[in-house]
Structures are given as C-alpha cells and as structure tokens.
Design a protein that fits this description.
Elements (H helix, E strand, L loop, with lengths): L24 E3 L12 H11 L13 H11 L6 E4 L1 H13 L5 E6 L4 H8 L3 E6 L8 H11 L3 E5 L11 H10 L3 E5 L23 E6 L12 E5 L1 H8 L9 H12 L1 H22 L6 E2 L6 E5 L3 H10 L2 E5 L9 E5 L3 H15 L1
Helix pairs in contact: 1-8, 2-8, 3-4, 5-6, 9-11, 10-11
Bound molecules: pyridoxal-5'-phosphate (PLP).
Amino acid sequence: MRNEWLKKEIQGFKPYQVAPITVPTVINANENAKSLWEYTDVKSAVMEKLLTVAPNRYPLPYADSLRAKTAAYIGCKPEEILLGNGGDEMISLITQAFLDKGDSIVVHGPTFDMYALGAEANGASVNTVVDSSDFAHDIEEFLQVIAETNPKIVYVCNPNNPTGVLWKKNDLVRIAEAAPKVVIFDEAYMEFCDDSELTMIHELVEYPNMLILRTFSKAFGLAGCRVGYLVGQEDAINMVSKVKPPYNLNVFSQAIAEVALDYKEVLLGEVQKVCALRDEFIETVSELSHAEVFPSATNFVLLRTDRVEALQKALLEAGILAKYYSPGSALYGCLRITITTAEVNERLLTVIKEVCN
Ligand SMILES: *Cc1c(COP(=O)(O)O)cnc(C)c1O
C-alpha cells in the first residue's frame, strides 16, 4: 500500500498504540478498578441476560431497550439519545457529520486529544485556547476566539480530562449562547461531580445546536464493553444518526450496559468512595513541598512536580503505572493518576511522599 493514497490529512498520523503493560497496578487510563464480576448479583444478572441475546441476529440499530433505560437514567426521551461504541465513536460520528474541509473548531487545552485529531483527519483546523498555568479556564478569551473564528464545532470537556478541572456552570451557558454552530459538552466524568446541577442536560430544551457526550466507561466500569452516547434534541440526534453504521453497538455490549443501569445504585455507590479517596489524596499531596495537585471533579488527579522523572521511576518500581507526559508535551512535569482503592492510594502516597517531600 502507498502512503500517498491515504487522505492527505492523515498521511502523517501514527496508529494508536499502547505499550505492553508489565506492572500490576495500572492507573494511567482512568479506568474503574472494579470489574462487574466483583458484584455477585450483577454478575449473575449479566450471565442471565447474555443468554437472552441472539448472537446470530443483528443488533437493534438504535439499541431500543438500552436507549430507553439510558433516557430514564438521564431524564430525557429515548429519541434524544444516540448510543455507540464508546465516546470515541460518538466523537468520530460528530466529526463525520459536521466537519467539511476548511472548517474550524475551537477547543481549550490541554484537553481530550480526540476532538483535534478528528478535526484534523477531516481537513478542519483547530483553534486552541490555552488554560492558565494552573489549568484554570479563560472564559473571556474562549468567547473571543469563538467570536473571531466562527467555528463549526466548539468542544468543552467538563470536568476536563486530563486536568480534572471543572468549568463554571455560568461559563458553560455563555459558551452555549456564543457558539455560532455546533457545541459539544463532553461529560464523560460527570458522575464524579457532586453537584447534579452542573450537567448541561438540564439545558437541552434551550439549545438545538448542543450535543452532550456521556460514557459507560468510567463511572459504570464498562471501558472494555465500549458503550457511550450522545444526548441532544431529537433533530440533532437524527442528524448524527445519518453517519452511524447501522449495527454499530453489538448485542453483548447492549445487554451488559442494560444490566449496569439496572444496578446503577450499587455501581454508582462506588463512585462516592472513589471521590472520597480522591479528596483525601489531594489533601495529602498538597502538603508536600515538591508536588502540586489541581482540584479534580473526576476519578483522577493531575499531579505536577519538579521531580517527575524520579517519581515515575519510583512508582514503576513499586509496580504502579501512572500516565506520564513526555518532554515537549504541554503537561510535561505532570502525572495523571487514576484514583481506585484505599490500598492503591496508600502505596501511591508512600512513594509520592518519599520522592516529593
Ligand atoms: C474516557 C473519555 C471519553 C470516552 O471514552 P470511551 O471509552 O470511548 O467511551 C470521552 N471523553 C473523555 C474526556 C474521556 O476521558
């Protein structure tokens, strides 16, 4: 195959790769540490449910049953939900549906890379409004760049990955008002926020140009099942549906996500524990002289230190893999640490205190 046959925009791209993982404690991808199998009731419910699906039949294209349960969970109509293979597929569908060559998008940075990658792959340009040195969002500049560049899509990740920082609700409303075309609020971590008023889902009726992205990968612990969804007005959902592969979400993932919703009280109970551990972790680390942590409304914490190489090395020696950012990255000097269990927190803090005190 010849590289020159590729779309020009992606000729310089590299396939996404994950290095083989050789340590026991993996806290670099914001995954939920607990598997569904650890809940006896949920496990038997999943097993029972799986035997009711027909692997020889195509799945329902809109995952009707899961769609209805997701709508009930979110508090909207089934027609206002579009399910797919994780938030990643939803971003890819948005990109395909809305971006023409020569369009532009506005993002803040650092944020989730998929927005910019999707735009670039489709020949759209990316205008990034850089957060302050302590990762606070500059709303005035963000609004100004929107006004100046007339973007096809504005993306806001709230709370933000990889910083953990939350946007103010009032700022989100100002962004929704200012966006001239499509506005996307990525709420992949919204279940980890204490305040249920922070989601933009309550504003659905006000903004026909708004789509909200959610996932089962984080709070519900289904990263391996690949289930995510968009929430928007019916009309907006129908537009993105035009580019959806007919049978995108497989029968097994649909079934497992349904069971997860049936047991949402149990599963989301774990989220409260993770949030408490996160707050403890932040409090302890913020007392160290060579480490700085940023407020987080997610299941991870961004830690900055002038001893980042030593810290990453010591963590690896202790069998812990955190997310490391190479020199040259906007986040160089930081590690992104997923919060999982009290036991892992204890091991983490032992190492961090040793290196960063
Ligand atoms: C994890 C994540 C997603 C979605 O991930 P999927 O596993 O593809 O559902 C989307 N946005 C952000 C910011 C994330 O961190």
